[in-house]
Protein 1
Amino acid sequence: MQKERIRIVNNFSPNVKGEYVLYWMQAYRRLEYNHSLDFAISLAEQYKKPLVVYEGLRMDYPWNSTRIHRFILEGMENNFFEAEEKGFTYWSFVETSKNPARGVLKSICEKAVAVVTDDFPCFIIPEQTTKLANKILVPLYSIDGNGVIPLKLYGEFASAARILRPRIHKLFPESFRHISNKNPSIKNLPSWKKTPPLPTWNPRTKSINEILNEISFQNQVSVVPTKGGRKQALILLEEFLSKKILHYEEGRSNPHSPQVSPVSGLSAYIHFGYISIDEIVSSVLNLNSKENWSIENLNLSQIGKKEFFHNNPSIYGFLDELLTWRDIGYLMFFLEPSFRKDLSILPDWLKKNNLKHKEDKREHLYTKLQLENFVTHDKLWNLAQKELVFTGKMHNYMRMLWGKKVIEWTSSLEEAFEILEDFNNKYALDGRNPNSYTGILWCFGLFDRPWFPERNIFGNIRYMSTDAALRKFQMQEYIDYVEGLSHETLF
Ligand SMILES: Cc1cc2nc3c(=O)[nH]c(=O)nc-3n(C[C@H](O)[C@H](O)[C@H](O)COP(=O)(O)OP(=O)(O)OC[C@H]3O[C@@H](n4cnc5c(N)ncnc54)[C@H](O)[C@@H]3O)c2cc1C
C-alpha cells in the first residue's frame, strides 16, 4: 500500500496486550478491494492477533430516514453473510431506542491493540473519527481508500478538471500497481473464539423491517425498490459492462429512465462503499482484453487528454467521470476539512459576479415547500424533482438543470444552495458525498468558466434552459417513465 494513504489520527503506542486489531468500517462497507481492511490485516499479522471487523449503524445521523437506513442495512446483511462465508470475525451493531449506541464503540476499542478506519473526507465521518481518537488510548489509523490515487499525492486544490487530469495521468501508473486486494486473506491470523462483547445484529433472527419499525426517523422519506449492498453493486457493474458502457459517450447526457440510460447507476453503491473504484477501473480496463490489461496499455503520450486511458471515447469518457470528476470533489474536501459546505468556497470571480447580480429581479419565486412538492410552472423540472423524491435518483443532465432552475427561482443564492443541499441529501441515495456538494456548486459556477453573454441573476455563470433541453434531446421515454411513477407502481 502507498504510504500516503495512511493517516495517524492519534499518537498512542499499540497495546500489545490487546485482544484483537479492530477495523471500524465506516465508509468502505465491503470485505473485498478495501485498503483499510488490507492495512488492518497487516497490523493483525504484525501483532499476531485476531482481526475484528466492526460495522455500526446509529440512528441519529443528519437526513436520516427509512430510505437511507434500509439501503445501509441491506449492505450490512450482505456483509454478515459474506463474512461468515470467508471466515471473518464480523460484529455488526444496529442502534435502536432499545439498543443505544452510546459507549459501544469505545468499549470495544479499549480491548484492541490498535484501531483502523476509513478516511472518507465528508459528511459526519471526519468528526466521528476525531471524536473517537480523543476518547481511546490505542492508535487510530485512518486509511484513504477513496480512489485509485491517494488524495494526498494530488497536492494542491484543482480549480478545474483540466488541471487535475494531467496529475491523475502522471500518478495513475504507480498507484494502479498498488490497488487493494480482491480477496484479502486472513489465513495467517489467529481466530477469535469468544462471544462478541456487544449485542450484535444477526439478520437471521431479526429482519430489516423489524429494525426499521423500532426507529422513529426525523425525516419522512419512503423506501425505494433500489436494493443496497455489495451483491447488487456487482450485478449493476456486470450489466453496465456487458450492455451499456460502449454507448456511454453517445447516450449518457440524454435523459432516460435508469433502465434505458447507458450509465452505470453505481453512485449510491460507491458512496456507501459497496464497490471500490479500484475494481470498477480494473474491470473497465480489462473489458474486451484477451490477456490481462497492464500499465503498458496506457497511451503515455496522451497525458492530460482523455485518450490517455483508452482509444474508445465511451471507455475514456466513463473513466474520466469516475476518476477526474469524482476525485476533484474528494480532493476539495480532503484539502479543506473546515469547509462549512456553503458558497464560501467559490473563487473570487464568482463571488464578484454574485454580488453584482444579488438584487436582480426574479420572474418566478417559489417556496421550499412548492419546490419540494414539484408544483412549479416548469413541467420538466417538476418531473426531475418527482424522480428524486420517488426513486432516490435523478438523471445527471436533469440534475444540472434542476440545480440551475432553483438558483433562478429563489430569492438568493444562499437560499438556493440550502434547498439544493437539503433535497439532494434527504432524497438521493448517493447524497451526503463530496460529489453532492461539488455537483451542486458546479451549478453555481465552481470548476466552470465564465459564460457570455452576461445574464440576469446568473451573470457569467453558465445558464441552462428547459426549452433547450427539450429541443436537444429525445425526452419522451424519460417523461413517460417519471409520469408513470407512483408509490403503487414502485411497490
Ligand atoms: C446538482 C448535482 C448534484 C449531484 N449530487 C451528487 C451526489 O449527491 N452524489 C454523487 O455521487 N454525484 C452527484 N452528482 C454528480 C452526478 O450527477 C452523479 O455522480 C451521477 O449522475 C451518478 O450516476 P451514475 O452512477 O449512473 O454515473 P455514471 O455516469 O455511470 O458515472 C460513474 C461514476 O462516476 C462518478 N461521476 C459521474 N459523473 C460525475 C460528476 N458529474 N461529478 C462527480 N462524479 C461523477 C460517480 O461516482 C458515478 O457513479 C451531482 C451532480 C449535480 C449536477
Protein 2
Amino acid sequence: MQLYRTLRSSSTSPPLFQRRQEVRRFEARGSQCRKRIMTRSVSTNNQAPIKSPKELARLQVSSLEEQLMRPTSTPIGNPYHPREEQGQALATLLSDGCVYLPGVLREELCDALLADVDYRIAEVDRRRSETAFLGGAPSRYDLKQPLEGVTLSAVQDALSSGLASILLGASGDSALLCELGVIASTPGALRQPVHPDTVCTGDADEKPIYTSFIASFIALQDVTDVMGPTCLIPATNNVAAHTALCGIEHQSHIDLLASSPSIRGTIRKGDCIIFDSRTLHCGGENFSDLRRVLMYISVQSPASGATGLPPYPERRTPPSAYSMLSEYHNRFPLKSYLQWQG
Ligand SMILES: O=C(O)CCC(=O)C(=O)O
C-alpha cells in the first residue's frame, strides 16, 4: 500500500488511469513469475530447484523496486570513446560511479569467448556443479576464468582499447587485477534486488573496486531489455544513497528509487560499462530465450601503506571473496597487463 501511495503522490507520475493499468499489468506479470517459480521449484530438469520462500521474497522486493524505478529508467546513453575521450570517461566514472564505453572488445574475440563460455556452462550443467551459480541463484552463472587462451587474449584486447588507462586513472597506479570471470543470466533469471557490491563508509581512503562488464554475445545479438540488462543508478556511490537504501519497507529506500534516474545497460556486443562497486545496481529479469553473457575484469588499489589487497574485499562478508581464481590474488598489477599470464 505504501508503495502505491508513493507512486500516486509522485509529481512525475503518469495520469492515474495509465498508472492503474500499469499496476494491473505489473500484478499479472508478478503472478506469472510466481507461477513460473513454483513450477521450476518442483521441476526435474537439470536446473537446480529454486528455494521458493527465499526466491519469492527476493522476487517481491525486486518487482516492487522495478515498479518504482520504471518511470525514470532509460536505456544507457552518453558513450565515451575509450581512446579519444578518456578524460570525459574518467570524469563521468568518478562523478556518476559508472560510464559507458563502446567497442572495447573485437567481434571475433567476443565470439571466441562466447564459444568457450558455452562449453564451460555445458560442463557445469553436466556435472550439476552448484558452485558455479552466482550467489546460489540458479539461472545465474559466475565462472571464474583462467587467465590464458581466449580469455587472456580478450582481457588484453579490451584493456588495450583505452580501458586500462581509464581504470588506472580511477584506481591509481598501484591497482591490481582482483576479479576476473564471466556472468551469464539464462532465460528465466529473476531480477536482483538493488544492491552495491561494496558498502560505502565515506572514509576518504576508501578503495572501491572498479568493474568492467563487457558484453559478449552471439553475432549481431545486443543486450535488449528482455534479456534483463544490468540496471545502474548513477551517482549513488556515496554514503547518503547507501544510508537511504535500507530495505523496501523504509520510505527513504522507496524515495531514493522513485526519484533517482536509472539506466539500463542495453549495450552492444563488445561494449563495456565500468562501474564503481559502491554504485547501486542490479541484474534484470531475463524474459528472453537467450543467455546474456558478460565478461568482468575488476581492479582495486591496496589501502594506503599496504602492498597488496586483503584476502576478502573489505566490507563484503566472507566467504564472498574476490571473484577470481584464488591463485591470481595480488599477482597481476594493472599497469603491466601486457605481461599477464595465468
Ligand atoms: O547480472 C548483472 O547484470 C549484474 C549482476 C550483479 O550485479 C551482481 O551479481 O552483483
Protein 3
Amino acid sequence: MQRTLKFTVQFSVVGLAVALIFLTSFAHAQAPLVCDASTLFCPASKAHSLPDTLSAIKTPNVSGPVKTRVVTYQVASKGTITVDAGTFAAQVAQTYADPRGWSRLGVTFKQVVSGGQFTVVLAQADSVPTFGSICDTVWSCTVGNNVIINQDRWLYASQTWNQAGGSLRDYRHMVVNHETGHWLGHGHEQCGGAGQSAPIMLQQSINLQGCTFNIWPLQSELWSTTLGIRS
Ligand SMILES: [Zn+2]
C-alpha cells in the first residue's frame, strides 16, 4: 500500500511538471510581441513561428538608440510673451524626446533650471534681432548657445507652410529640430530632388525647393560636430 502511494505521488508530481512545462511553452508561444518606440531590441514583426523567432533573435531589429548620453538645455523667454510658457516647454520637450528626432544621435535631451549646454529661447518677434546680426524679426535663428524661436512663427507657422497644408504642431516640431540642428553644428541643406523628403536643415519655412515636408532629421543628418558625433 505504501509503495503504491509513493508511486502514485511520484507519478502525479511528474505529470504536474510535464503539464506545467507544456502550458508554459504554450503561453510563451502565444504571448503577443509588443514592439514600440521604447523597445530597444524588437524581433522582426514576422516572428510568429519558432524558427522565425530564433532567426529574429540573431538579427535584432534595433528600433532606437541606446540613450546613454544626456544633453542639457534650459528654456527662457525674451520680450513680451503671449504663449503659455509651460505649454512651450512641454512641446519642446516632446520634440526632443521623440524617437524620430535628434534623439537618434544617441542622446537624451534633459531640461534643467540653469547651467544647460544650450538655451531654447521663446522670443517676441521684435526682440529676435537682439541676439545677433543673422537674426531678423521674421524668422527663428540660432546664435551660439541660444536656440531662438520666434514667437510669431510658433503661433502662426509660415505662409509657405500653411499654404501647403502643414499643421501648426508639425511646424513647431520642425522649427525646434531645425534650430537645434544649427546648435548641433549643422548649416543649411538643399532639397535632394523633387518629391524627396526635405532635410530638416532645409529652410522649409521659406521654400521647399520641390521637396516634401519633413519635420525630423534625415538619416544622413545624424551627426553633430558640437557633440563630436559622426554620421
Ligand atoms: Zn536655419
Protein 4
Amino acid sequence: MAVSVDLLSNPIFVLGSFLVLFIFHNYIHKEPQHGKKYHPTATTLLQPLINYKKLHDYMTSLAIRYKTYRVLSPFHGMIYTTDPVNVEYMLKTNFNNYGKGYYLPSVTSDLLGEGIFTVDGDKWREQRKVASQEFSTKILRDYSSVTFRNNTIKLGEILSQAADSNQIIDINDLFMKLTMDSIFKVGFGIDLDNLGGNEEGVRFSLAFDDANNLIYKRFYDPSWRIKKFFNIGMEAELKTNLKIVDDFVYKLIQTKIEQMQMSKDESLFKKDDILSRFVEVHHNNPKYLRDIILNFVLAGKDPIAISMSWLIYELCKHPEIQEKVAKEILEALNMKNEEITDVADFMARVSDSALEKMPYLHAALSESIRLYPALPMDPKVSFTDDVLPDGCNVNKGDVVTYMPYAMGRMKYIWGDDALEFKPERWLDQDGCYRPESPFKFTAFQAGPRTCLGRDFAYRHLKIIASVVLGCFAFKLRNEKEVMSYRLSINVHVEAPLQVYVSRRSVFQNP
Ligand code: HEM
Ligand SMILES: *[C@@H]1O[C@H](CO)[C@@H](O)[C@H](O)[C@H]1NC(C)=O
C-alpha cells in the first residue's frame, strides 16, 4: 500500500496539533458545568495521538483505572467507557439518544454513502428491516454456505501445496482473499477469484482495501477536506481507488439491470446473490444499490478474516488448545481412524449437524473475538444532555465510545484471567456453549443495532475453521513473535502472519 506521509509519525504534525489543542482548549472546550458530576478526565487528546500505535492498549490502561473516563478535546466532549451498565444504557435503554450523528457519515460518505452503517432514524430503520429480512432467508443461508465451502476448498488446496513443499505462508493474506471472494460473490454474484490470483479481482480488492484505510486516516487528519478540494496527497490516492471501486461496481449493477430488462423469462437471469434480489425493487437507483451492497461487503469480509487470523495466532501460541480443537472437529465428523486425501472430500462431511457438535471450536472463536473484537471502539453521538446510570453527565454533542477491545481485557468483567486465551470460560460443566451478556461481550454491539451478521459470521467461521484446523496443523514461523495490531477501523494483525502448515494424520498425502 502506497500511502503518502504517515501523519502521526510526523513530529511537525504532532507538535502542531499540540499547539492547536493547547490554544483552543482554553477558548472552546465547554468545561463541565458546576454542580454536575462528570466522569474523571483521564488524559488529553494529545496522549492518544502520541500513543496511537498502541492506541487500544493505551485506552485499556486508562480503563483499568477508570471504568469510564473523559479525554479532554478542543472539539467536543469525549467519553470512553468499558462499564456494562453504561453500555446497556446507551445501546438499549436510551437507544434513541445515541447515534451516528453528522460527523462520522460526513467523513465516510465517499465510500459508504447512505448505507446502513452511516444512517440513523427512519433511514436506518428502513434498511435494517430490509436487511434483516434478507439475512433470515434460506436462500441467503444456502447460497452463502455453498460459496464459503467452495472457497474454503480452494484455500485448502493452497494449504496442501504449502504443506507438501514446506513453504511459509501468510495465512492472514489468504483469509483476506477468501473472505473477499466469498462476500463479494454473495453480494454481487461474481467470482473475484483473489485466491486464484485473478488480476481484475486483485486490482479491485486492493483498491477497496486501500480506500477503506485511507478513509480511516481522515479521522486523524483535519486537513483532509482541503486536500480533497485540491486533490492532493492521500485524498488524490483515495479518489483514484474510489474510482476503481465505483467503476467496477456500477458496471456490475448496470449489467444486471440490463439483463433484467431484456429478459422476459425471469429464471434465466435470476440468481441468489443480494444484488439480483435488490435490483427487482431498486433498479432505477444504482447509487442506492451500490451503497447497500458495498456496506454489506465491508461489514462482512474483514471481521471474518480478522477473527480467523487471531484464532490461528492464539492456537499457535497454545498448541494444546489447537490439538483439542482439532480433536473435537475430527470426532464431530466421525473421522478418528480414516484417512482422507482430498479437501473437498473432507468438506463434504462438514454438515450443518456436524457443525453443531463443535462447542469447543465455537468457544475458541468467541475467545478470539473477545480479545480481538473486529471493531475495537464504537463511537456514538449523544443527541441531548443526558445522565448515564453511573450518575455522571453527558452533554449534548458529546461523543460516547464503548470499547470492546478494552472490555475484553477488564478483570472486573472477566475475572483475573481476563487476558488469557481460555475457551473453557465459554463452556458449562457439561461442555455446552454458554453465551455471555451482550453488554459484557460487546464485539457484536447490542440492543436494536446488534450486528445483523453474527450468526452468519459464526456459521462461516466454523465452516472455514473445521477444514483448516481439521486437515492441518499450524506453527508460527517465529514462535517468539508477539503480534500486535495495525491501527485502522478494524484490529487487523500488524504484520504478515507467517506460519508453517503441515497435514494432520487423517489427511495424508495422496
Ligand atoms: C466476527 C465477525 C463480526 C463482528 C465482530 C461484527 C461486529 C459488528 C459491530 C460492532 C457492529 C456495529 C457497528 C455500528 O456501530 O454500526 C456491526 C453491525 C453490522 N454488522 Fe457485523 N460483525 C461481524 C460480522 C458481520 C458479517 C459477516 C456481516 C454480514 C455479512 C455483518 C453485518 C453487519 C451489519 C449489516 C451491521 C449493521 C447493523 C445496523 O446498523 O443495524 N457483520 N457488526
Ligand atoms: C460451488 O462449486 C460447485 C462445484 O464446483 C459449482 O457447481 C457451484 O456452482 C459452486 N457454487 C457457488 C455458489 O460458487
